[in-house]
Known about the structure:
The structure is a homodimer of 141-residue chains.
Chain A: H1 3-9, H2 16-27, E1 33-34, H3 35-44, H4 51-64, E2 67-71, E3 77-81, E4 88-92, E5 98-101, H5 104-116, E6 119-132
Parallel strand pairs in A: 4-6
Antiparallel strand pairs in A: 1-3, 2-3, 4-5
Chain A binds a DNA duplex (30 and 30 nucleotides) through helix 2 and helix 4.
Amino acid sequence: MHQPKHLKKAGLKATLPRLKVLSLFETSKERHLSAEDVYKLLLLSGEDVGLATVYRVLTQFEQAGLLMRHHFETGKSVFELNKGEHHDHIVCLQCGRVEEFYDAGIEARQDAIATERGFTIHDHSLHIYADCTKQPCPYKT
Amino acid sequence: MHQPKHLKKAGLKATLPRLKVLSLFETSKERHLSAEDVYKLLLLSGEDVGLATVYRVLTQFEQAGLLMRHHFETGKSVFELNKGEHHDHIVCLQCGRVEEFYDAGIEARQDAIATERGFTIHDHSLHIYADCTKQPCPYKT
DNA sequence: TTGGTAATGATAACCATTCTCATTTGTGGA
DNA sequence: TCCACAAATGAGAATGGTTATCATTACCAA
């Protein structure tokens, strides 16, 4: 449990709710969690954290660079631990499962396109929405 | 004014609100409009259309293939006329201006990535968020 | 330990969007 | 052309995710 250092380094007090949220992301099987996911998982494991605090902490972690926020078409923000290495996402429309990928060619083309047009890239998001074909979809709605 | 045919072809009654909304997209200087944009523009031009109707009509037009819906990080859906040809977007973080681009290489890589992983692509969204560098930003917030 | 600032939690407020339902409108058939 | 009826509309309530408010509580440096 060396998390307090991570928080200190990010300029955040090492409070209980923050430690719990960070720990959840580090131990959860599912990398991608919404605010409500985090809230419910904490309640399930007996931790008593307010929903408002969950939202605040997630936003703070995003600003501190500990988490990354994604806007999928599901209508809610999804967060994941920031591994430092950029990647894009492919989202299953049947079960909401998220896979990650990285393609150097796509990255390079984006930089070229922005530069050609006189823009300085801050960020980008590439989401592929698709259906699983090989694997039967586990959570078919 | 041959719009009624477009609506009929799409299986939609040629009602006044629908004609007004379609006409707005065909004449507006700004291709990309949110539901609220549409609502306010109609009010300004003296047309009396309910907000709920605007939302309904936009969704119907999207399903009929007349409009395309985009989810930018602004938190609200944005619509544009469907020109038939796919393209992606680069969004200026200073003024919210949207430019369109298409890159065959990026498209091809996406198809390949999805296929490799056993997915069938439904759709994708690629948004580049950036700052104008050359052109001074006209609407600097 | 303690003071003071920052964080928390319950709840209200917010905003985009959707739903409800009584009223109005478009349209195909008489 | 007129009529009848299903479909569409509009006003406002309801919803869902997220943020703001504010009194209470918890961290932490001295």
